[in-house]
Design brief:
The complex is a heterodimer of chains A (325) and B (276). Chain A is mostly helical and 325 residues long. Chain A is built from 14 helices and no strands. Classes of the chains: A mainly alpha (325), B mainly alpha (276).
């Protein structure tokens, strides 16, 4: 019941409210109707402003300062302009280690996720209802597995001492002594890629499957009668029809795979001890919380955000075309 | 349906088998390792083992895993309760009312959902410290509410929109106030969606790693399960048996919840992407 009584105007710290042109001090029915959506939105707007938008502004402010341990204690303002950004771009680590580890990894993982997910969706679509439900539920288990425990399991599988992979390879006589898969940059990221793909292909599969089931079967049958093979049917009918679905899936995967953090951080050496395997997210975190260079770390975080916002803009545009808000 | 040749069927069966193997392998390996007596001991062959619950016993006796579990439950429940209420109110506002800036608000929700939370670790760390909540569960809950809210609103939007407007009007005709209508019509009808969305925010809070690690810092008594797992890693040797047993305990509620509500959620998620 409290939701319907509008509080006095001055209590509402709502930036949009000024636009509402409410001048009469008297409470009228029309006014309470106009206020109601804003009342309902107030908690959301406060949380967004305080915990998402203001931090977003703040990370930019930090990135323009030499923000170290002293500044984080005192809150002192120590403006250095674009120094942090210049340092980042002049850092050979960015070009040789961090950027390849982020971009190449994201490209490979997105491609792997989308291709595997689509193949699984096609497989699911060709199964009968019973098997679709069984296989679909199993695929869901991979999706539901928490990122942290999932990563630990992959680390355990590839463990240098007692991992099943080393065991098997040694038992088969392919290796004489255990190999530390995490010391090598490429095998490190190969394991990370398997982990991320394993965790994220179900989303693609289920989403594409929903789209596939919506493709008109008449169209497919007509194409088949005209002599189109399965590949031709896939690329000439299914892909164009599902274009919006693929756009959403690819963009979302790109966003997720660009900012992988826990999956890398948890792996042996991933928390900054092995400088060869840093990616943008981990680099930002390690510089901030291990080296106390919060300004420098913030600048990396800002760069990551900018890249993701560009991808997001594309995402929103695609969505807007499909769905009227 | 269409007739299929035998080789085609065989190929499909192989594909299904390969898929099941790849999908289930980590989860299976986790449970097997947790139940194997050889994971903890020096013996190498895990499959040549006897069933044991020793790993699970060690999880609860050696470390503070019970405390971590309680913390995780508290944090997840706090997040769910607050974000469900706030998200429901907001989703009603954006679906049931036509007001100036409605589209702007919707756009904001969508964009906010895309903000990489990893990039906000530093300012949120400072923010939570300023509030004096560093190393305390409420600080973590506060941050998780902010994370699960955009998605929650976005999902509930569909569920609220699915309630026929005529039902609302009927309630008004019977003399109900808006509050009464909300309580007796909208709330019960959106409850399934609310449950599904709540499960999702529960899982988000349960699984989260980077903020739990940063905000809880050295406050061991307030660790959640996802960061508490680190306790089983030693300087030179890791207690993999305990790690896998603890991982199993963490994973089971999530998988059960997830499989229960996923269908509902994904239909809502895809509703935005595919038309017709």
């Amino acid at each position: 019941m409290t939701t319907i009584t509008p509080p006095p105007l001055e209590d509402l710290k709502d930036p949009f409210l000024e636009e509402q042109t409410i001048t009469k001090p008297r409470r009228s029915f029309a006014r309470s109707i106009a206020l109601r959506p804003w009342l309902l939105l107030t908690p959301t707007l406060i949380i967004f402003a305080g915990l998402l938008l203001w931090p977003l502004v703040r990370v930019v402010l930090f990135s323009l300062q030499d923000y170290g341990l002293r500044e984080i204690r005192t809150g002192e303002f120590n403006f250095v302009g674009l120094d942090n950004y210049i340092k980042i771009f002049n850092d050979s680590k960015l070009w040789q280690v961090v950027l390849p580890n982020t971009v190449v990894f994201a490209i490979i993982v997105v491609a792997g996720t989308v291709i595997l997910g689509t193949l699984v969706a096609l497989l699911l679509a060709s199964l009968n209802k019973f098997w679709r439900m069984i296989v679909g539920s199993v695929v869901m288990v991979a999706w539901a597995m928490p990122m942290v425990t999932g990563t630990y399991v992959w680390v355990w599988i590839f463990d240098a001492d007692k991992g099943i992979v080393n065991e098997t390879l040694m038992n088969m006589g392919l290796m004489d002594e255990p190999y530390n898969w995490f010391a090598n940059r490429f095998s490190f990221f190969a394991i990370a890629a398997i982990n991320v793909i394993h965790h994220s292909f179900p989303f693609v599969a289920i989403t594409v499957l929903a789209g596939l089931l919506g493709v008109s079967s008449e169209m497919l049958e007509a194409a088949q009668l005209d002599g189109a093979g399965p590949f031709r049917r896939f690329f000439s009918i299914i892909v164009p029809t599902l274009k919006p679905v693929f756009a959403v899936v690819i963009i979302l995967s790109t966003i997720w795979d660009f900012k992988v953090f826990a999956q890398i951080f948890i792996m042996p050496g991933g928390s900054g001890t092995n400088r060869e395997v840093l990616n943008l997210g981990v680099w930002s975190y390690v510089e901030s919380f291990a080296q106390n260079r919060y300004g420098f770390g913030s600048a990396i975080a800002v760069l990551l955000t900018i890249v993701l916002l560009i991808i997001t803009t594309v995402y929103v545009r695609t969505l807007m075309k499909e769905d009227e808000l | 349906m269409k007739t299929r040749s035998i080789p085609q069927q065989t190929l499909k069966a192989i594909c299904v088998a390969a898929l099941l193997l790849f999908t289930l392998f980590p989860a299976t390996w986790m449970v097997l390792s947790a139940l194997s007596s050889n994971t903890a001991s020096g013996q190498t062959n895990i499959l040549d083992f006897s069933w044991t619950l020793d790993n699970f016993v060690r999880v609860f006796t050696k470390g503070d895993f019970g405390v971590y579990l309680r913390n995780s439950v508290l944090v997840a429940l706090g997040t769910v309760l607050v974000s469900a209420v706030v998200a429901l109110l907001a989703s009603v506002a954006v679906t049931r009312f036509h007001f100036k800036f409605r589209t702007t608000v919707l756009m904001m929700i969508l964009v906010v959902q895309m903000v990489p939370l990893e990039a906000l670790v530093i300012p949120l760390f400072v923010q939570v410290r300023d509030l004096g909540l560093l190393g305390q569960l409420p600080g973590l809950i506060l941050v998780y509410i902010a994370f699960s809210l955009p998605f929650g609103i976005w999902m509930l939007r569909g569920f609220v929109a699915a309630v026929p407007k005529e039902l609302e009007e009927a309630a008004y005709m019977d003399g109900a106030t808006w509050g009464r209508m909300f309580w007796s019509v909208l709330l019960p009808l959106t409850l399934p969606g609310l449950v599904a969305t709540s499960v999702f925010s529960f899982i988000t809070a349960w699984n989260e790693f980077i903020f739990a690690m940063t905000l809880m810092g050295g406050a061991q008594e307030n660790f959640t399960v996802s960061i508490g797992l680190k306790a089983f890693f030693g300087e030179n040797s890791n207690d993999w048996g305990a790690v896998m047993a603890a991982s199993t305990i963490i994973t089971i509620p999530v998988v059960v919840f997830f499989v229960l509500v996923q269908r509902r959620l994904s239909s809502g998620l895809v509703a935005g992407a595919v038309k017709g």
